[in-house]
Amino acid sequence: MPLTDSLRDEILASVPSLRAFAISLSGNGDRADDLVQETLLRALANIDSFQPGSNLPAWLFTILRNLFRSDYRKRRREVEDADGNYAKTLKSQPAQNAHLEFEEFRAALDKLPQDQREALILVGASGFSYEDAAGICGCAVGTIKSRVNRARSKLSALLYVESAEDFGPDDTVRAVIGGGGR
Amino acid sequence: MKDVKSQASKNTAPGKQGGLNAEIQARIGHQLRAMYDDVVRQGVPERFSELIRRLDDPQAGNPGDQNNGRD
Fold first, then answer.
1. Residue-range domain boundaries for chain B
2. In this complex, which of B28, B42, B56 lies closest to A156 when CB atoms are compared?
3. ∠ CA(A121), CA(A123), CA(A129), 5° rounding?
4. Which of these, A5, A135, A139, B51, has the minimum number of CB atoms within 10 Å of its CB?
5. Residue from the list A12, A36, A109 with its beta carbon closest to the beta carbon of B49
6. Per residue in A99-128, pLDDT tens?
């Protein structure tokens, strides 16, 4: 369909959540904004292929996700390096709990396999249904459900189980677990 | 009646997998949304509203007209 005013407004209204999705996926604000920009350019160039009445955010998220995937393949090494930097940040930081907890969460999220991370974000943060998330990722609904479940249990293992020693100092784990108690 | 809620938040022992797990899952959900909503609340940066305006209105799309030498 042609780019009507309302469609343009809807695309603009999707930008904040596209950015949030991009940052959650990439862990890097600059790269995320480049991804969003590329997504918007693709979307507008292919606006004729958008089906009126279908889910515009899901369509945009699909474009962004595919762009991220092809970009990610090129940058794998860089991502692994970023991962190492998070671990360093963790060890050098004093016990500023809220911030630490956030950094730690971010680092744990980055440790998830990509399939699981994107499924968890789409369902748990973007608020897409399992069906929409399956459409965005091009897989079966059951696959999305199992990825989300695996993502959740892996995150709890990384964040809250003491055996996750390579992830952070024991103090950190204890501080998070006992966060409300002291 | 037991005061389950305050018990759970005060004395969460790492060994107690059952109750701990529900609490952990809630916390993960909360952190995930907090991280995400933090970005959502930033709204639409100028960069993107301008991009769409330019693409939408080819008349205004000549970089020389609008960009004022910005690169």
1. 16-66
2. B28
3. 150
4. A5
5. A12
6. 777 888 999 999 999 999 999 999 999 999
